[in-house]
Amino acid sequence: MQIDLLRHGETTLSHTLRGHLDDDLTEQGWLQMQSTIQQYMTTPVDWDVIISSPLRRCRCLAEHLANQLGLSMLVNEHIKEMYFGDWEGISTQVIYEAEPEQLANFWQFPTQYHAPNGESLIQFQQRVMCGFDEIYEQMQRQDWNKALVVTHGGVIKLLTCLAQQQNLDDLLKMPAELGELYSFSLSKYHEQMQFEIL
Question: What pLDDT, on a 0 to 100 scale, did the predictor assign at position 8?
Fold first, then answer.
C-alpha cells in the first residue's frame, strides 16, 4: 500500500508550537497545499481515499479535495500533531527566553525531554502508530491501494525516522516542509507496522 503524506500549509499561528491548537490556514497556506497537489495529481486520480487529521489546518483542504475528486474522506483522530502542553501557541523565541535549557534539551533529546504538561515522544509515537494501524486495516478492508493522508510535521518526521531506522532523537532534524508531499509504502509484518520511503 502507498500513503502520500501531505503536510498542511502555513497557518495563522505558524510562528508558534501549535500542537493541538485548531488554527486556520492562511491564504498562502492554502495555496502551498493546492500547488503541491496539482504537481502530484495524475489523471485519472490514483488515490482511493483521503484521510485527514481532525484539525482544521488539515481537514479543510482534505474535505475540499474529496468533494472535488469524488473520493471518500475519513478523519483519523490519532494523526494529530504532538501535544505541546504549556508551550501550545507560544513561539520558540519566547520559550527560549524563558526556559532556554528546557527547550534546548527538547530539541536535542526529544526521547528524554518533552514540553511541560505535554505529550512525551513515546506517547506520541504510540498514538500515531495506532492511527496508521487503523488506516492500514481500513485500506485492507476496502481493498484500497493508495491514500492521501493530510497531516502534520511531527507525524511526517516520525514516519521518516522509522522508515530510515534512525534514532528517534534525530526526529526534529527530519524534513517536513509546509505544504509538501512525502510518499511511503505501508505494510505489516508480524503485527508490526513497516514504513518505507518511496
Answer: 98
What's the pTM?
0.95
For 50, the grid coordinates are: 483521503
Domain harbouring 64, CATH code? 3.40.50.1240
Mean pLDDT, each 10-residue run in order, the chain (198 residues): 97 94 97 93 87 98 96 98 97 95 96 96 97 97 97 98 96 94 92 91
Domain that holds residue 185: 2-197
| Peptide bond before residue 44 is cis, with ω within 30 degrees of 0 | yes
Ramachandran class of 135: left when φ > 0, alpha when ψ lies in -120 to 50, beta otherwise: alpha
Work out how many domains the chain is built from and give that number. 1
**SS3 category, 32:** helix
